[in-house]
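Quarterly update from the structural biology core.
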Amino acid sequence: MPRYRRLAESGISRRFNRILSDNIGVQMAQLPYVTSPGNIDKALNGIKSAAVPDRVSLDFVKTILKIPGGSGDQMTSYLKKIGFVNPDGTPSDAYKKFRNPSLSGEAVASVIKIGYAPLYVRNEYMHELNDSALIGLITEETGQPHDSNTVKLTFTCIKHLKFFADFKKKDVALDLPQRETDVQPLTPPPASAGRQQGTIGLNLGYTINLNLPATSDPEVFDAIFKSLKSHLLSSDDA
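Predicted structure, tokenized:
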């Protein structure tokens, strides 16, 4: 999953600022999916029952998790993309927490927020959307037709993960480090430029570079999404 997302919106009138979140432009993302979503259940159940390996290799996925062939190749890559496995192949903290029955649901919730972070930029309650709304959100993010295989498979993979997830844990507010976001507002035009026949117009432009850190901690991503909403998508500028 690309670590950088570019968000831009220009020519926004103040009276439409409150609906900025519905119109903000985001670079199309490559959301992770596998072509046999049922293998997600097999992989997660296998992870619970098998001993923690030094590395989640192709051999481990195909032999221990019993997902052979090309499906095993896909699953090995998928587990990395959603944060269950570190880039070097070692099991992540989320992987280890998932094997703990008391933390299992929380661990899967965290990897959903990591693997599908672009969807949370669009809607921080993505996991609570009904099927139709979730398909619509995926369609917007990927730029693919709503009935395309990409959208269908991405949607189905999320549904399989959600079956194991528990999002009930209360979020903890964090101060977002300034280096995580680089916001460069454009200089607004002179007030006189918008005065015509007693009206005042205000045009603003935003260029936002969002660097998604390589972490398995869902609270970091929650802080990013909430900061975007509270500081950029609010309607308190009146």
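The chain has two domains: 4-28+176-232, 38-164.
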